[in-house]
From TrEMBL:
SUPFAM superfamilies reported for this sequence: Multidrug efflux transporter AcrB transmembrane domain
Keyword Transmembrane: yes
Organism: Terrabacter ginsenosidimutans
Membrane topology: Multi-pass membrane protein
Residue ranges crossing the lipid bilayer per the database entry: 27-48, 217-249, 261-281, 316-337, 343-366, 397-416, 541-558, 570-588, 608-629, 656-678, 684-701
Broad class of where this protein is predominantly found: membrane
This protein's name: MMPL family transporter
Cellular compartment(s): Cell membrane
InterPro entries given in the database record: MMPL_dom, Mycobact_MmpL
Ranges where the Membrane transport protein MMPL domain occurs: 157-398, 453-721
Pfam families from the UniProt entry: MMPL
Length: 731
């Protein structure tokens, strides 16, 4: 059987007319996209506006408007947070008077730096290092350990340049203190942690793309058998990356953009662009194979371009819109970081989609003569994938049961999934700033923020203390103090053993919030913030899921004319994504493969990962579903019997789907090779999702379930059939 597209005259749909326009003026399209790409990279990375994207990134736990954030607002009003710089000194002889004098003299110089407000150091205490009030600043609370910290507070409200200058000068003078005392000093701050994360993200991005682009080009060279064809999707991918970075740069002016967003969104654009480019170039060569001349004429090239944009372009359009709908579900959530990822992700997908149906066809036209050399018309519809489909169709029930058992087994670990929001733990274990703060928390626990803080609306310290004492005996509680907060509030600081988001800390937050008090109470802290974030996400999740399910259902219905196929696709995606999350839990929460993947388990999964995996993974899964269904539907509409249409559709798209999946795995393998923990988790999750979807689901479950359903695959109620006849999107 030949390609049904060769059976009649070219359909003059809008996409076909676009293809004809591209074929007539390919160099204009290439030139316009070249200018756009250069402009995107110049603005986003080149810093032509005065700063680059990476200079605008932030880092921190995801937050929402909640009880925790309101408590933080009250605290900030009375105790405004100051930018600080902390130095840890080790190996100092704090019993030697000369050493102490030299250190104190050098420390006084720190306070003379413009922009420094105060300097807190045991060396400046009136009674020296033996003063009980400076014990929290001494390692072990005593001079005998030879370690101490100095904390520099900066004047609030400094602009970015002045703050940077002040920190740089203060750091140099702090390190001079350690030198004067013949000791070792290290400096850390929140801004340094953010800079470490953003610089690591930038390095991971460059390394990921440095790995992905050459490997994908190599794979596509073997897929296409030529450099020209292999290079076209890569060119489209590079342009899409530029669009992705510009989209992120624009988003950073609207919301605070977390550093981890850049890798996630940019590599998604890279992966989708390669997928779409692969599909477009493959279809162009397939259409070009129907030519009558060895060297294609202008009319034959135009015909092939029309058909490519009308068919592959339609598939890309459906796929891109499906992925965009999946990411648009993130816009429903309250957390600004999720909305930022949603906006940037949708923008990137749309850029990749437009590039695939305009730039890549234009490149195909320019290289048509080279592409035609290996564009040989297929003589047989029998191959590896059609034989696989026929084998599955012989025992569809056995295949369904076997694959579902495997997927459910993989998904089981999700039942025990724990979520957390890491700080410095996002960095590699040997990162200087992570080492600094882990040492600070261990040696100077009094300087770390309490795990749980309660803001009580009362002026009576004694009454608040009496109420708060009931929590002193709760599991994990190590210390509890009460102090005035402004003139109208009291602050209850509770230290809990373990990580800030430990089960004990979260249980304590839940208990406090459920306990009545004779005054208003607001509970905050990292555990409280995580609880509020997850509660907000859970509350909005049904709306996000509803939007994605409805949008996906409508699109697949418009493409297939069936209500059964969209429902089946949604169910299969849920199972495969559950399996991917199970892999993430097994590896990162339970601590398997730590040495191989180069990470240190924190006993939980980062709180944003499940939501992002569901959005991105769903979109990618539907990507392959659309690739496969579009060809099955194409054959079915040309009168091919259902089972035969499935085997032909799998034969025509199996190579593309497996190649695209391999390329996506290579791209997201850059995530796995990264140093940021949440990026590594996303990489493993998406690699697992794509691998599972492209093999077990598309190659086995889809043909098996379509075989069992038979003619019911194409069922729709009469009113919906009439609706599809009128509004359905066909070639």
């Amino acid at each position: 059987m030949q390609n049904p597209s060769a059976a009649g005259p070219a359909p003059r749909t809008r996409l076909a007319r676009l293809g004809a326009l591209i074929a007539r003026h390919p160099l204009r399209w290439v030139g316009v996209w070249a200018v756009i790409a250069v402009a995107c990279f110049a603005v986003a990375v080149g810093g032509v506006t005065g700063e680059s994207l990476f200079e605008r990134l932030h880092s921190g736990a995801p937050t929402v408007e909640s009880e925790s954030s309101r408590a933080q607002d009250v605290i900030s009003e009375s105790q405004p947070a100051l930018e600080t710089l902390t130095m840890q000194v080790t190996g100092a002889d704090l019993t030697d008077a000369t050493t102490l004098q030299d250190g104190a003299t050098a420390t006084h110089e720190v306070g003379k730096v413009p922009g420094v407000k105060t300097v807190r150091s045991p060396l400046l205490a009136p009674k020296g290092v033996t003063d009980p009030s400076v014990a929290p600043l001494l390692k072990g609370g005593t001079p005998a350990a030879g370690g101490f910290v100095t904390v520099v507070d900066f004047v609030p409200g400094l602009d970015k340049a002045a703050q940077g200058t002040a920190e740089s000068q203060a750091e140099a003078r702090l390190l001079a203190v350690a030198t004067a005392m013949d000791a070792q000093g290290s400096v850390g701050s929140t801004s340094k942690v953010i800079k470490a994360i953003t610089s690591t993200v930038e390095r991971d991005l460059l390394r990921g793309e440095g790995i992905a682009l050459p490997l994908t080009f190599l794979v596509m060279f073997f897929v296409f058998g030529g450099f020209v064809a292999a290079g076209m999707p890569i060119v489209g991918a590079v342009v899409s990356i530029g669009g992705a970075l510009l989209s992120l740069f624009g988003s950073s002016h609207v919301v605070e953009l977390d550093a981890t967003v850049v890798n996630i969104v940019t590599l998604l654009g890279l992966g989708l662009s390669i997928d779409y480019g692969l599909l477009t170039v493959s279809r162009f060569r397939e259409e070009l194979a129907h030519r009558k001349h060895d060297v294609p004429t202008r009319e034959e090239v135009e015909r092939a371009t029309e058909r490519t944009v009308a068919t592959a372009g339609r598939t890309v359009l459906f796929s891109g819109l499906t992925v965009a709908i999946a990411l648009a579900g993130l816009l429903v959530f309250e957390a600004s970081i999720m909305r930022a990822i949603g906006v940037a992700g949708v923008s990137v997908v749309l850029v990749a989609m437009v590039v695939a149906i305009t730039l890549v066809p234009a490149l195909c036209v320019v290289g048509a003569k080279r592409l035609s050399r290996k564009a040989v018309e297929q003589t047989s519809d029998v191959g590896v994938f059609s034989r696989l489909a026929v084998g599955v169709q012989r025992r569809p029930v056995v295949v369904i049961v076997g694959v579902v058992v495997v997927l459910v087994t993989l998904a089981l670990p999700t039942l025990s999934m724990k979520l957390t929001s890491s700080g410095t733990e996002l960095l590699p274990t040997d990162a200087p700033q992570r080492v600094f703060f882990e040492q600070l928390d261990r040696d100077y626990p009094a300087l770390s923020a309490p795990e749980v803080t309660v803001v009580a609306g009362s002026t009576d310290t004694a009454a608040v203390t009496s109420w708060a004492q009931q929590f002193r005996s709760r599991p994990g509680v190590e210390a509890l103090t009460v102090q005035p907060l402004g003139t109208e509030h009291q602050r209850v600081n509770i230290r809990v053993a373990g990580r800030p988001t430990s089960d004990e800390a979260q249980d304590l937050v839940t208990t406090i919030r459920a306990t009545d008090a004779p005054f208003e109470t607001l509970t905050t802290g990292q555990a409280a913030g995580q609880i509020d974030f997850l509660d907000s996400m859970s509350a909005r999740a049904p709306y996000a899921v509803g939007l994605v399910v409805l949008g996906t259902f409508v699109l697949l219905f418009l493409m297939t004319g069936s209500v059964v196929l969209p429902v089946k696709a949604l169910l299969l995606n849920v199972i495969s994504l559950g399996a991917a999350l199970g892999v993430v839990v097994w590896i990162f929460q339970e601590g398997h493969l730590e040495g191989l993947l180069g990470f240190s388990s924190v006993g939980a999964v980062e709180s944003m990962v499940p939501f992002l995996v569901l959005a991105f993974g769903f979109g990618l899964s539907m990507d392959y579903e659309v690739f496969l269904l579009s060809r099955i539907v194409e054959f079915h509409r040309h009168g091919v019997e259902s089972d035969r249409a499935v085997s032909l559709g799998l034969q025509r798209t199996g190579r593309i789907i497996t190649s695209a999946a391999l390329l996506i795995i290579i791209v997201f393998g850059g995530f796995v090779a990264g140093d940021i923990l949440i990026i590594k988790e996303m990489g493993v999750a998406l690699v697992a999702a794509v691998a599972i979807d492209a093999t077990l689901v598309r190659m086995l479950l889809v043909p098996a379930t379509m075989t069992v359903l038979g003619r019911w695959n194409w069922w729709a109620p009469a009113p919906l059939r009439r609706l599809h006849d009128r509004f359905g999107i066909t070639e």
